[in-house]
Amino acid sequence: MSLYSKATEFDRFNDRGFTPFQFSSRMTQTNVSQFGGLIPENPISDLINERSAWYEMWINPQKISLNRDFLQKKQHTAGSIVTYHYRADATKMKVSGVCGWIAINPQKDKDERSLFSKNVFNIAKRHSPRIFLERLRNIAEENMYFVDLNGIEHYNTKYIRIFTKQYPDGMICEGYYTSFNIPEEGEDAQTITYDFDFIVETMMPVMQLKSMIGMFGGTGGGGAKKTLSPLPGIM
């Protein structure tokens, strides 16, 4: 199967029977699909990101809330009250959840993320509660700026892909973490809880990728392959 075919094969329900939340960062995507910035961003690298640069939640969070404050300022005068209205503040996301015992399904190859790995497109198979929490915490703790192999500095924005009642088709939330906690209790040795706060700077539909693929000839791959074949080392 060609690299393009693997990259454009969309996820079905996995073995656990649900559509998992996913998380990533710009640095992770640059290192995976652009080889650390050695090749420029292009439609193929964007498609590869969708298959190889997103980590799955081990199990979806128990609770998620999206809160947006509307900002106003009131000024009192001698005869009236003047209200100034401003654009809404950035959306604040609060997430909390529970994972099973961390020794379930221990991971041997751990965080192997290379296009030369035979399992690079099978993210769910390389997973466990322990690895999920480790990956999520590592991405939350990544520096907000990084330098690629070409010496160019980038803003390391973080991404969370959510599937909720409000957004059944999925939304990609782009922003940054403001807190991340993994409290542990001795009374319950079988589960681990976690929670984090996330500022959402932009939101975009997950379906936007499918629209992009349609620009290059549809999901069948024939038109896209013909259009994108000049890109070296892809087909």
Report what the structure shows.
This protein is 22% helix and 28% strand. The longest helix has 13 residues. By secondary structure, the chain is of the alpha+beta class. It has one domain. The radius of gyration is 21 Å and the shape is globular. The N terminus and C terminus are likely disordered. Strands 2-1-9-10-11-6-3 form a seven-stranded antiparallel sheet.
Q: Outline, from the CA principal axes?
A: globular
Q: What is the tally of beta strands?
A: 11
Tell me the β content: 25-35%
N-to-C series of helices and strands: HEHHEEEEEHEEEEEHH
Strand order in the sheet with the most strands: 2-1-9-10-11-6-3
Distance between the termini: 10 Å
**Residues in helix, %:** 10-25%
Structural class: alpha+beta
**Poorly predicted parts:** 1-17, 113-121, 216-235
Mean pLDDT: 74
Radius of gyration equals 21 Å
The largest sheet, given as strand count, sense and whether it forms a barrel, is: 7 strands, antiparallel
Secondary structure tally, helices: 6
Number of domains: 1
Describe the structure using short key phrases.
6 helices; alpha+beta; single chain; seven-stranded antiparallel beta sheet; 11 strands; two-stranded antiparallel sheet
